[in-house]
Amino acid sequence: MAGRTHVKRYICVIFLVLLCLSYVIAWDNEDLEVFDAVEEVNENFYELLGVDQTATAGDIRRAYRRLSLTLHPDRNKEDDAEIKFRQLVSVYEILKDEEKRKKYDEVLVNGLPDWRMPVYYYRKVRKMGLAEMTVLLLVIFTIGQFLVSWAVYLEKKFEVEEVLTSRFKKEKRGKKARLKAESELDAVDQMIQEELESIPRPKLQDLFILRFPVVCVKTVIASPQLVCLIKEKWEERQAMERAKEKEREEEEEMKAAEPTRKPKKRQKIELPEYTAPETDTVPVVYGVNSTGEDKTEEKKNSNLKTGEWTADDLSILAKAVSKFPSGTQERWEKIAEFVGRSTPDVISKAKQLNTQSLAGSALVDDSSVIGSRKHAVISDTTISRRQEADDGVSAETNKVRRRNKQTKSSERTLLISEVEPSQKTKNETEKENLKSDQNVPTQAGDGSQKESVQFWSQTQQKVLEWALAQYPRGTAERWEKIAEHVPDKDKDDCVARVKYISDMIKKKKQAAS
Questions:
Q1: Distance CA 30, CA 50 (A)
Q2: Is 462 part of a structural domain of the chain?
Q3: Which has fewest Cβ within 10 Å: 113, 214, 287, 483?
Q4: 241 and 190 share a domain?
């Protein structure tokens, strides 16, 4: 143990000493220049200059000047004058430098590096030409390729042997398997041998240096066929381009032969101008200045109607109740201005009439405005406003009923009976249609969708539109809830009615466009 510890200490000390070394012996460029000059001149430099080895720098400079006058190419007419003068210059450059002169003196003593030193091969490679370098690289590459191919072959062979032998060992573990394996040992060896023989062995003809000339020769032999093939491909391409050009010209001729269609001018649709019906009622004006309030009040009082309520007055009252729903500031004052009567008169009349009479007068007015349009579609906003108006009127009337329950008076009976005959007949026909809808047999409703769509009264249509607004899309069991509100109609009738109305709207839009 003690000896091992001493050895480890010595190794550590040597390693640290080697790390501290900063001086490295190597050949530099100056050494290579001296070696090249010695090989090129192949003569002693001192003898060439005619001086002694112990001569000073001044003696060497004077000898160089003397020889340069005689060896200069301008004065020396020999064929090798330039070569001799260049050698003289290189000798002088080495001897005038103290460092290079010392290295040359070492060469005189030890000689040039031989083949046992790496610098020998480095200097040889530096002096090689392009052809020599190419041949050397090809030789190195060929040897490397051959060695690598053999290494790959041996590696594959080793892997196959390992795989097959390991598989055979696994099968040989059991007793029965052992007996079977011993009997089949020859077969396994034969199989391993076949697998090894199937691996291709590396051959000399597969080397690049031999394969490349063969490929070049085959390329030269097959060059005429390649030229013909390229020519055929070029001709096919030209033919395809000519065919495309011909088709393009034919299409242009066909387009030119076709008559040019002028774009249709869009017909301007003139929308009909709506003119409001003339009425005797005075328009309501808000925000009047406080000056002259007494005069305006006197004018209003003078324009107010008095006396009994006619059917037109009742219709205007129903419109006003719908226009100004409950919750509106100064509601009854605005309704009174709209009707053209005093506020107490309007309130008392509203107390006398019930919700049905007001709704009936509103329906009469709507039917007079709509005219002959039987299938007019009422928007959701209109239904919501009417519903709010009806709710407001019913709330007001309920309050009045709670305060003082009035019995049917003769005046109320006379006012209802004084409704215009045309309006009365319209309400009666509407009720008759509703009754006829209720009495329609189920077989007809189940028979066709058109009959169930057509037999819809105005009241049912109004309730359907209100229910559509109350239950928008996305509501759970939407159509069942809508059908509960519509009298004498089920879910299928409501769905068919909505589809029918949407189809009618689409057809009108298409006809307008």
A1: 24
A2: no
A3: 287
A4: no
CB 336 within 8 A of CB 317: no
* Residue among 437, 438, 487, 445 at smallest CA distance from 466: 487
pLDDT of 22 higher than 70: no
Cα–Cα dist 488/276, whole Å: 37
Question: What tokens were used for 262?
Answer: 């002028």
Closest CA to 437 of 497, 373, 382: 497
Domain CATH for 57: 1.10.287.110
Greatest mean pLDDT among 50-59, 262-271, 390-399, 423-432: 50-59
Number of domains present in the structure of the chain: 5
> Looking at this protein, which amino acid is placed at residue 67?
L
| Helix axes of 343-352 and 311-323: crossing angle, nearest 10 degrees | 100
Domain assignment present for 48: yes
Residues 334-367: pLDDT tens digits?
Answer: 888 888 888 888 888 888 874 444 444 443 344 3
Q: Identify the CA nearest to 349 among candidates 417, 420, 412.
A: 412
Residue 435 lies in a domain: no
The packing angle between helices 118-126 and 29-41, to 10°, is: 70
Q: Which domain holds residue 69?
A: 27-127
Same domain, 101 and 138: no
User: How would you write 162-202 as a 3-class SS string?
Assistant: HHHHHHHHHHCCCHHHHHHHHHCHHHHHHHHHHHHHHCCCC
- What predicted TM-score, i.e. pTM, was given to this entire model? 0.30
Q: What does the mean pLDDT of the chain come to?
A: 71
* DSSP state at residue 379: P
Cα gap 94→33, rounded to integer Å: 9
Query: What pLDDT sits at residue 428?
Result: 46
Together in a domain, 156 and 106: no
On the question of pLDDT at 216 being above 70, the answer is yes
Are residues 190 and 226 part of one domain? no
Q: Please answer whether residues 178 and 185 qualify as being in contact, where contact means their C-beta atoms are separated by less than 8 angstroms.
A: no
For 482, other C-beta atoms within 10 Å of its C-beta total: 22
Phi and psi for 9 in degrees, rounded to 5? -65, -45
Other beta carbons within 10 angstroms of residue 335's beta carbon come to 23
pLDDT in tens, 283-329: 544 444 444 445 455 555 556 777 778 878 888 888 888 888 877 77
In contact, 171 and 191? CB cutoff 8 Å: no
pLDDT > 70: percent of the chain: 63
In the prediction, which pLDDT does 189 show? Answer: 73
189/233 same-domain check: no
Q: Which of 96, 116, 95, 118 is nearest to 107 (CA)?
A: 95
| Greater pLDDT, 481 or 26 | 481
The reply to whether 32 and 122 lie within a common domain is: yes
| Same domain flag for 191 and 234 | no
Residue 460 covered by a domain: no
Same domain, 102 and 71: yes
